[in-house]
Amino acid sequence: MKHPKGIGTNHHSAKMNTAKVRQARKSFATGRWTQAALARKYGISGPSMAAILQGRTWKHVA
From residue 53, how far is each of 5, 19, 59, 62 by CA, in Å? Predict the structure, then answer.
């Protein structure tokens, strides 16, 4: 699915992609990873990772 400019990987400063978002959500669901640890692993801020895991961002990724 193609997304408008500025959404997901089309954003000029995106550090995450669809595969990374899915993997982060899957890892968090296991209970073995904290939000902070995943944020460090993927090189993004804690609040950004929290938004991804809570579905407030990257909503188009199931």
Answer: 22, 14, 10, 11
60 Cβ contact list (under 8 Å, min separation 6): 1, 3, 7, 8
SS3 readout for the chain: CCCCCCCHHHCCCCCCCHHHHHHHHHHHHCCCCCHHHHHHHHCCCHHHHHHHHCCCCCCCCC
Cα–Cα distance measured from residue 14 to residue 18, given in angstroms and rounded to the nearest whole number: 11
Q: Determine the pLDDT at residue 14.
A: 75
| Amino acid in the structure at residue 19 | A
Q: Greater confidence, 2 or 19?
A: 19
